[in-house]
Model the fold of this input.
Amino acid sequence: MKKSIVLFLSLFILILTSLHIQAQRQIETINSGWRFYKGNIENAISEDINTANWETVNIPHTWNIDAYTKKDYYRGVGWYRKSLFIPDITRDKQIFIKFEGVNAAAEIYINGKKAASHLGGYTAFTVDATAFIEFGRNNLIAVKADNSKLDIPPLSGDFSIFGGIYRDVWLITTEKQHIDMLNAGSDGIFIETPSVSKNAATVVIRGDIKNEAEEKKTVNIINEIVDPDGKVIFSLNNKLVLRAEANTPFNFKISEIKNPKLWAPDSPNLYEVRTTIIDPKTKKLLDFSFTPVGLRWFEFKGSEGFYLNGESLKLIGVCRHQDQMLLGNALSDDMHRRDIKLIKEMGANFLRIAHYPQDNAILEQCDKLGILVWEEIPIVDIVSLDPQFEDVCHTNLKEMIRQHYNHPSVIMWGYMNEPVLVTVRTLSGDYQEQIFDKTREIAINLEKTLHKEDSFRASAIAFHGSEIYHEIGLSGITDIIGWNLYQGWYGDDFDGFDKFMENQNSKFPSHNLIISEYGAGADKRLHTLNPESFDFSIEHQQAYHEHYLPVIANNRYITGSTVWNFIDFGSASRDESMPRINNKGLVYADRTPKDIYYYYKAFLRKDIPVLHIASNDWSRRAGIQEDTKPVILPVKVYTNLPEVELFINGISLGTKKVDNFHAVWDVPFTGGKHYFTAKGAYNTKLIETGMPISFSSVSMFLNKENIRNLELAINVGGNCFYTGEESGLTWVADKKYTEGSWGYVGGDMFRTSKFRLGTQTQINNTVDNPLFQTLRTGIEEYRFDVPDGTYELELLFADVFAASSKVVHNLTEGEIEEKENIFDIYLNDNPLFLDFNIAKEYGHFNAVTKKIMVKVDLNKGIRVQFKASKGNSFLNGIKLRRYSMN
Done:
């Protein structure tokens, strides 16, 4: 066998060398130089139309950068045009154009004629352009893209639906005999590994060859298997007689791979199948394909968890959306690969590609780096009764599976995420029951389609944390149940997560339970010493994950988990602290890791030392200083070392043993810049890291000595320190007045529910949204015991006492009682604003700022007094700045 392989290879190399100029498949991107028009326009497919006002763009492209600034971003039609020269020498070839992604519906026109259409924005499709092309001249390619609210998935979703041609476009030229190009956007060849063990592996290669000629054709099809070291270990040469103008299937089984190098997260060994089609008479190379192969086997064993290659493996990873701020979904392959590298660097072995198929570059990188994948189509929140909806669901499921079938990283196909969330929260009665029934019917049918397409991988649905899925019969359909759980964020407390999972395991011990989503929002501008749910502080996000991850890791019946989300991503419907952004990411939108990223890295990486001072997200600090005493603030270190010593400006703060991969020091801060160093030992080797942290103090007692540069800004009604990104000014957390100091008198922190501090509705006309979202209601006074002088006093208001648009994904959102608020404001007993009605004068949810010059004498200090005549008095923020000591 070895001798025959060598002889064949010598002949094959000679053929390729002598005929390489005739290698007839040509593949190139046609991404550059498109013309784009935002909106619908008549005669967009005509060569005679004037496109002088059209924009010149390159692909990938989206028209929805407005989704980062507008809740009602543009959902509609966009047109793309490109002049494409097809040389006359290709007249006897087949011409295909492959679109990797057009969101959400596409119509393709070539030289004024409709060549194809496609529904679904997240799967690829290929157009046979041959019959429409005019050879030896420029051809007009026109694409109508439409991301309006069509009756195709997704009907809803907590993410922006970016429109456009946002993935690569390929021009592919082939011979008349070629691997089938029109199989649901796939490469036309499918690799299966039905039997794999440590001793041997079987590989099946199947597909179709299309003969476009009017007569039958005999070809040789050669399949080689190349091992991870680049050596050809098997070759199979078969003769096929191709029917005229038809597809001819092939199916070859290779059962001679001994002692295979297995694919796994720690050793992602990749084989390759090389398929070539040769004309046996002319020795001409007709077509070729290279397909990666990973030899592995896996099993889901209910409460015993997941097994890969016979060994138990906890699946720990992240969910990923595909956008990046100011780019939308129009990311390059390099950007996609960068994300997977960051995920692997963190130590994850699992990726949920949510909530739709993503760029092939993602799957390729997961194959190469060893990350297991759950991929799904975008049936999100609710289904439609329209028959077209289900038809598109089946088509998109087939496309996803066939396009990504050959990736060994994929172990699960999914087809629904929280499929009755909107149904439960917005519908009732008979109509709700109809939607429940339709959801179950679609799931049953898709399950059949999924296993018909792929009998080797598992099926999955992700549920939100409700028993309704059991009640309506959805929980017994798929192989895997995923739970999207947010106890301690949207409501409840952290322990509610533990109790929910224990309950599910006790009821359904045979189910494989995966935490398909969990996470907490975090805004770098917000920090607190007293974190609570939904305050968007960095500290609450850290506490949240520090509870969840050990529970997931230490309970075997939890098969795995994926954090929601790897990135801060675009979600135009959301307001919250960062409007248009869901900020639950472990990394920021620009892919800078948050400190919590390093907790995961410390927890998951056993092969390298991890030592990180968790203050990158809080490197500019402020605190309230009493007299000249230092302000005590925590500094945390994330690490996988057993113990760490922390230093400030070279002075040791002591050594601490590490618990749950972190240690915390209470650090005495004084004003100015400080340099922190953390040191520890990893396998007897000294590991060290450092970073600067600046601190500015705010005096609790204001006197002539410390008031010289006073600028005291207070986040009234808030528990967080807030640092404006643009101004760099830190607004300190609110405090109660004590004599000789400053603070509020009376009132309550405004809450919409037990778990909701402030409002989550966007406040207009400000860049400091979180500052105006919290407030103190029923406030009686705000007092400053300051020495005599002239001060600038700034009062911040936003009337939030009105109903706002509900976001269905904002679970357990509290109701705001609508009321009219009229109150008087006095300054040191003198009327300042009478019958102050902010909503009437400025509208609800609008930022209002009032600056007043105040002269203080006779040691009276400053008293801002509030007296309500209707509803409540309230204050959102206050700032005092010394203007003059005169």
User: Anything to note?
Assistant: The longest helix spans residues 429-453. Residues 1-22 have pLDDT under 50 and may be disordered.
